[in-house]
Amino acid sequence: MKPIKVGLLGMGTVGSGTFNVLKRNQEEIQRRAGRGIEIAMVADLDVARAQALVGEGVQVVGDARAVIANPEIDIVIELIGGYGIAKALVMEAIAAGKHVVTANKALLAVHGTEIFAAAQAKGVMVAFEAAVAGGIPIIKALREGLTANSIQWVAGIINGTTNFILSEMRDKGLDFADVLKEAQRLGYAEADPTFDIEGVDAAHKVTLMSAIAFGIPVQFDKAYVEGITKLGAADIKYAEQLGYRIKLLGITKRTAQGIELRVHPSLVPTQRLIANVEGAMNAVMVQGDAVGTTLYYGKGAGSEPTASAVIADLVDITRLHTADPLNRVPHLAFQPGSMSSLAVLPMSEVVTSYYLRLRVADQAGVLAKVTGLLADAGISIDAVLQREADQVSQADENQTDVIILTHDTREGTLNDVLAQMQALPTVMAPIVRIRKEELN
Fold it and tell me: Per-residue pLDDT tens for 11-66?
């Protein structure tokens, strides 16, 4: 059987990794796929550089549409990224009857519903294992491996840049701004790290996992997104003393009221395996009713780890290339006509527990007033600790840090109480609020 022909759009880090891994492991990949998989055409703006990377025998062009127009190309790999030209090219490839493999989580999180509908109508596949957690096969686990389960929640460290920064802050006792500069120097953070440090990248990924876990449309616009830029070394230190580590988590959860979809820093108990994921590594926990808790760990980015996921998608499409479209695994795991209309909850309706840190005047009655406000709102307190405040001037030495851990409460209720606390004359600085996730 002749090899299946692939067109590659974008010869950057992942593109070159895909080409190299496919070439290096071609014999084993062919044994798994049942036929050869050959990158026959590459599009990249830097034609000379791309040609040097792929060598002779592969056609390199500067126009991606030339790849899509080639009738011999069966599968198009989109590795350009972003929302603009990438969307147009993916839609054009689908319209031309070509299967698509993409690592573009931003594109799918925002426009996935439209893209998957177009692919369904045309009878082609859009595969996106590489869009979430790099080399970790979490999409396949959610779509296929856990099919028997009613999935209850998914929680993951799905951005390596922020996990590296938080690990360094904890290990070295440094503040965010200092560690960010080091992360940029080492290449873990981009020159413009906004998508990473503000939680947007993680929100794109958890939006896709939520859709697959619960059979709902992709709804990135309804996700709650909070990054790590406001975290201080003091909170990471206090969390450690309390038996927790702070991680930026993407969380999606099924509740009686609807679906939670949120990204934010979270205190996680140190005994949880996910709390001990360090550096730029990724990990995803999935709770299913039949299987219990499963954990998926590995490299969430990089040339060859991401290429591993891209090629796994190529193999899947190659195996199913001639199959009846109705017998393929649905894009979002559930049959298109059986998607759920469960609402995504606003953050004010989410119920969880909290870590609060208040910088207060060190005088009698302050703690009673603060805890009284919580009690009046029906918010139960798990623990209260007082710590000598770090980094205060001599003029402010009569201040102390009060740390309060709450039991589960509705976020909107806590927001109202925090506003009352902040208005107290004895509260000397903005209150720090970090959500706490037991993950049990």
Answer: 999 999 999 999 999 999 999 999 999 999 999 999 999 999 999 999 999 999 99
Considering the candidates 5, 140, 205, 253, report the single residue annotated as catalytic. Answer: 205
CA 196 to chain centre: 10
Give the 3-state secondary structure of residue 378. coil
**What is the rounded CA–CA span in Å between residue 35 and residue 428?**
68
Q: How many domains are contained in the chain?
A: 3
**Block residue for tokens 């009655």:** 365
Residue with tokens 């360090």, as numbered in its chain: 278
Are the C-beta atoms of 407 and 374 separated by less than 8 Å?
no
In the predicted structure, residue 391 carries a pLDDT above the cut 80? no
Helix (H, G, I), strand (E, B) or coil at 228: coil
Hey, is 141 helix, strand or coil?
A: helix
Please give the share of the chain, as a percent, with pLDDT higher than 90: 90
The number of helices, as runs of H, and strands, as runs of E, in the chain is 15, 17
Q: Are residues 399 and 357 in the same domain?
A: yes
Same domain, 379 and 416: yes
247 is catalytic: no
Pairwise CA distance, residues 275 & 284, whole Å: 11
pTM: 0.95
Residue type, position 75, single letter: I
DSSP 209: H
pLDDT at 413 over 60: yes
Q: Nearest Cα to 245, choosing from 231, 262, 263? A: 231
Question: Does residue 398 carry a pLDDT above 90?
Answer: no
Q: Is the domain of 156 the same as that of 217?
A: yes
Q: Are residues 245 and 164 in the same domain?
A: yes
| Residues 295 and 150 both lie in one domain | yes
Q: Please classify residue 82 by burial: count the beta carbons closer than 10 Å to its beta carbon, then call 0-12 exposed, 13-18 middle and 19+ buried.
A: exposed
